[in-house]
Amino acid sequence: MASPQTPPGFPSDVRYLTTPVASPLLPALDRLTYTTPCPPHLLPNPPPRVAIRVITDPRHPAKGQRGLFNAGTEDLERGTWIRDYVGWVHTEAEADPKSEYDLSLERRAVTPLGGEGADEASGESRFEVVGCDATTMGGEARFVNDYRGVPGFERPNAVFELRSWDIPGMVGRKGVRMAVWAGPHGVAKGAEICVSYGKGYWRPKEAQGQSRLAEGAKEEPRAKVGRGRRVAKAKQG
Ligand SMILES: C[S@@+](CC[C@H](N)C(=O)[O-])C[C@H]1O[C@@H](n2cnc3c(N)ncnc32)[C@H](O)[C@@H]1O
């Protein structure tokens, strides 16, 4: 299969992906769920035109960096799928706490051997995270900035939400992606596409845990399931 065409403005030192890449340490079921390619006809809608641009506005807090913009000829309606957040899908042990591109796909309770999900010594539940880091490889969604401080923004115009589809030929198995969607008021033609990373992202680095972008996903605990259908709860917030 021909490799996907790298979009204009994509940095040459980052590998362009359209499908996530699994760490060799990722359990087989997570690999299936989070890295199986999604057939184009099962995307929620045709990919809208976006552009990666270097930010030149001196008032923008990410000036000199890149951002993602609605480059189509129309506004994007509320709930329009924009792009999947693709990258390197990894286990919690492999997470880079300094990464600025790591997002949590799933946070699940771990049941200790012979236990009920609680650590016997502390009595607390333990969780593990499946992360997706777009530092060295990723797609257009890695350029989505946080709305805070961006001129003209009082709130995000886009959201991170999970989506899933039935994997063809595998009864009961779903592929899952974190995706960027147009928010409740849509994304105006020409506008930068900005989400909320969540307040946790902006805490001092030393106070942060793994998967910094994960906080954004947790703050908006909703999921897209099937072809654009909105459900009340994320698969695992
Ligand atoms: C996921 S990356 C977003 C894309 C990034 N601007 C780029 O050019 O690759 C996250 C980083 O972008 C920058 N950023 C995003 N939103 C920002 C904001 N509202 N204010 C300041 N920096 C921001 C920060 O450096 C942050 O760590």
TrEMBL record:
It comes from the Eukaryota. Signal peptide: none annotated. Residues 207-237 are annotated as: Disordered. PROSITE patterns: SET. Residues 48-198 form the SET domain. This is SET domain-containing protein. It comes from Rhodotorula diobovata. Residues 224-237 have a biased composition (Basic residues). The lineage of its organism: Eukaryota, Fungi, Dikarya, Basidiomycota, Pucciniomycotina. SUPFAM superfamilies: SET domain.
